[in-house]
Amino acid sequence: MLTRLYINNFITIEEIDVNFSKGFTSITGETGSGKSVILDALNLLCGNRLDSSKIINREKKIVIEAEFDISNFNMLDFFDNNEIDYFDTTIIRREINPAGKSRSFINDSPVKLDLLKLFSLNIIDIHSQHESLLLNNEFFQLNFIDDFIKNKDNNYSSMISNYRDQYMVNQRLSDELEELRIKNKIIKDEYENIVFSLNELSEITLNKGEKKQLVNEYNFLKNSSEIKIQLEKTIKLLNIDDNSVIHQLNQILLSLKKIKNYSEKIEEFSKR
What we know:
- The protein is of the alpha+beta class and 272 residues long.
- The protein has helices at 35-45, 76-81, 113-123, 138-152, 156-202, 208-222, 224-238, 245-259, 264-271, and strands at residues 2-10, 13-19, 62-69, 89-96, 102-106, 109-111.
- It folds into three domains: 2-152, P-loop containing nucleotide triphosphate hydrolases (Rossmann fold); 154-204; 208-271, no CATH class.
- Strands 2-1-3-4-5-6 form a six-stranded antiparallel β-sheet, covered by helices on one side.
- The longest helix is centred in the middle third of the chain and has 47 residues, at 156-202.
- The chain is rod-shaped, with a radius of gyration of 44 Å.
């Protein structure tokens, strides 16, 4: 919450020091009375560039300083990470000299302008009809929800822990759902291919002889490994000298019988 604003040598203001109380503050006045100066000053604290036309005395520097009550903003980590002293009432200041060189401070510690921007983003929300609201900032949304829960529920830590557990469960289930979707697509594609092939086969008109020939070729190819084994065994038996011819023929016949159903030619040969 903004509690104080100091402006020196900026636009129409030579010097002003304004204190703000808790609650809603409205600034009213006629057009051109300087209402927007406060917003312009806060814009400078947000790291925006200075319009040189807004300098009223080019021999003096511009000073914009603001006090904020940040006790409810959970920003201790920000101060620790950037080695800045933390106070619930924090003062930020920006000075711009006549040459246009800018210096920034947080609790009297010199900081880079980018760091001042980052800090201001979390405590100042300036918007108009054509500007983005801080409400659209994800970081601000999370902090706002956290602060709201803290004020409403003493079991904040357990609630956060429970939320994280539920979030992990949701992520796991989402991953599993995605895997099922992929598997379902694969099955659907395979089904469509089978249906397509079946429809193509259904459109083919075969006479009795062609169908029987295709069945024979299918059986032959399907059992080609077994056919090869038995034929090799037959050839081997024919080349053996120390067995009787009758025994060899019986063995050959036995081998051929095992594969006769796979080919009509083999079946005819086995009957001879």
